[in-house]
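Appendix B, example 12.
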Amino acid sequence: MAADSYGDLKIQKERCYGLVAGLPASSRPLVTKALKASERWHAGQVRGGTDFPYMTHVYHVVSVLVGEMKIRDPAVLAAGALHDVVEDCGVTVAELAERFGKRVARIVESESENTFGSRREYMEHFRSAPKGPLLVKTADRIDNLRFVEHEGITAFRVSRVAEEGKWPMEKVARYVIEAEKYILPHSKRASPEGFAELDRLVGRFKRDSSFAKTYKALVAAGDTHFRD
């Protein structure tokens, strides 16, 4: 995928729907219905610090699930399309269960931090989560770290972007630590392909000298949890 197309809504929508079109005929209706609902619920939202429509993230997550992780389970894919609507759009778990089924609703609930008592509790639960939530969380974190890469927090521009305040270095470090501590150890049993890409991304950040300094300081202090 070309770097300059990352935040292009039209390109990412076409790519996502193209991948969905290749699913078994019995799987496509639920996934398409979930994408359409997500488009309505996320209308007008953008990704933090950019002018990218928020739906680009949703399209990326579903594309990672279908195209890279080779997931064909329609409930998992529908949950990927809907994974942020409870947390960010005010949609209820009960509404999702009524419209998309209980399994989709349970997976989305598992992805929604606001249904847990704390960030720590939310992340800890992935250690024992079923395969469905782990698949969606792995794809979600892959795209979140790719988003940070795209915005410049890489080996070449990490210090400058942090100074500009797009994503403070400590926030990015905690995000990477969470992936390493709570998601990577368990994602391999859900998806070897997802594990490999998430491992690559975590390793890329850790190898950057500017980033590594902040990362190591937080780990040494035991101050590793993400803060909004």
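The chain has two domains: 1-115, 117-228. The longest helix spans residues 169-190.
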